[in-house]
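task queued by scheduler; priority normal; single chain, no ligands, no partner chains; default sampling; output format set to structure tokens
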Amino acid sequence: MLRLGNELPAASAAFFAARAKRSAAIAEWSPRWPVAPEALIVRGGGAFTDSERSLTGRGIVRDGEEWPRKVTTAEGLAWQIDRSKRLLKGKTIDRQKVRGLTRKDWEQRLDEDLTDHAIAEQYEASCQQIRDASGYQAINAAFIDAAKAVVSIIGAIMAQPERTMAGVVIKAEAVSLTGDPHVFVECFADCGKWASELSASVLKIAAEQA
């Protein structure tokens, strides 16, 4: 346990450094993140939409609203454009309405989708440019790896039997790190168990030394 206890400070320091780097990237680049164009907003959502998302991938809830807005994707618009072109090439649309729409309606829809598709491609490219320039994806991956490394050491420490109060202190230091929400996410199935085990260890050693 002593060896694991000695490994914990370096692992936790690497985690905190990775967390700080991630936070700095978010703070620097989030203000540059593009706002979804109004032309792409779909009220109530629907097929081929996604929530408007931030640099971190979380849904963006705009001021005064309760939920992220739904944004039509370039991929979804490309599908709609292909469908419209196939319909307009056929003759069925000249004999009867398709989904309640005439040829003229479908032509108008195609024109609108072509315009929106160009907007969607530009918007998504702008988002990707920020991702690439910020290096966020690599930074976040390193942060997650650092959290997993900490959790791995915590788990190894908690699996060791404690025979002295020094061992209990090492376990307490390890469990205290689970208070960070990002560490907790990586070990949520075990955090409660570890806290209970730590309490039991404290009582056991205290009773033995009484």
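post-processing summary
- The chain has a mean pLDDT of 86.
- The longest strand covers residues 49-51.
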